[in-house]
Prior knowledge:
By secondary structure, the protein is α+β, with helices and mostly antiparallel strands. The chain has a single domain (2-71), classed as Translation Initiation Factor IF3 (2-Layer Sandwich). It has helices at 13-23, 39-50, and strands at residues 2-5, 30-36, 54-62, 65-71. A four-stranded mixed sheet has the order 1-2-4-3, with helices on one face. Helix 1 (13-23) packs parallel to helix 2.
Amino acid sequence: MNQLDITDETCPMTFVKTKVALHGLSKGDVLEVFLRAGEPLENVPRSCEEEGCKILSIEHINGDVHKVAVEKG
């Protein structure tokens, strides 16, 4: 499983780093993105969908950290 931890990043770098990580994957590959609540949790899934990816799940991990599973489209 491909993973990316962007919990220390702020927007817009959260999606920039996610987009770079997705670029290195093949269609159908899944990337687990660990991010914080608020802007990152609102913007990263939406931006991924706009890029043609599918959000498989959004899971609360602990505190304000969430895991978003993104399938590359």
